[in-house]
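User: Teach me something about this protein's shape.
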Amino acid sequence: MGERAEPELRPTPVLLQGQDYFVRAPDTPLDFQERMYQAGLVEEEPGDPVPCVVVLSRATDMEMNDLSLALAEHDIRMVRIDADRCLDLPLTVYADTPLIEFQRWLLRPVLIWRRHFDMTAVPVDPATVYGSYVREQWQAVGDWLTTRDDWGQVNTRRSREGLDRLTQLQGAASVGLRVPRTAVTTMPGRSRPGGAQCIVKTAGHHMLEPEPGALRGLFPQPLDVRRTGGEAREPAPVLVQQFLDADEELRVFVVGGRAIGFRVHKLDPAQLWVDPESVVVEPVDVPEELTEPLLRLCERWQLDVAGFDVLRVAGEWVFLEVNVNCDWRWFEQRADSKDVSGAVHDWVRSRYDELAESATVGEWGSW
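Assistant: First, the predicted structure itself:
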């Protein structure tokens, strides 16, 4: 056999150039209910399966840590299946009845919320047969858990997985919102939709996790023809988007039909991640002319909790994107507000009560 040829040297993709953002995501559990139950500090009585809220996420999901404490105050059980802590988890899910055995407890899921349950966070090497197998199994089971129709869901799987950025732009335009002109290309140096200045964005997640727990940012960058070149090709398509000089930028959280807004002051698109302490956030009332189309989008996309990024350009609202797995605590901390947390906790508790009350005494007794 001949010698193996040296791999071809390829230029660094544009979104990996100049990106020095790196963060370690610890897998230390901080969930209040999990700690209390594992320590045996909660009195448990034998009997029927305990109704509960199930969250599929990862250990660093602080929004869900807050939710766990808020639900505990109302005697609502919540359990976590975290992608970065799922290996060797004692779990049995019954296919013919809406029950699960989770560790040593028999539970009846009432409401399920899938957030940051990404397979890249599972602590295995995907390049091995073992790692590939583990990821494939958890992906399949996670998908099944979040599409079953015998318990409620926060946001549907279709809304999470079908809402890529291009689908979002089409949907926003259909309800009358302006959207930036956008091209999808492997040759960003040749694309200037809208002319003049442009921004290069990822078509996928803002974070890469090539190693479980090690996240690197893929944040928007100004289009620099010195880097991209007219004919230079990317190894995968990117979004090239018209840059708009905005009068203001808003992050609008929609929770169960309620719109909660924050005005964001930053110098460039990546500043939110690379220099968050310099970003100024303040609460703001969301005008009716913006609330109405955002609520229509939530209804169309079956979203119960979501975060929208919008700009106001020359008096006109421009849709940028919607984040289904939106994290709100950072915005609240910067703006000294708890409005979103309060709305989410109230909505989850209300939805849980609605679903739990729909089960008759006879049904509970048959489980």
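Now, about its shape. Residues 339-357 form the longest helix (19 residues). The chain has a mean pLDDT of 89. If you'd like, I can walk through any region in more detail.
User: That's plenty for now, thanks!
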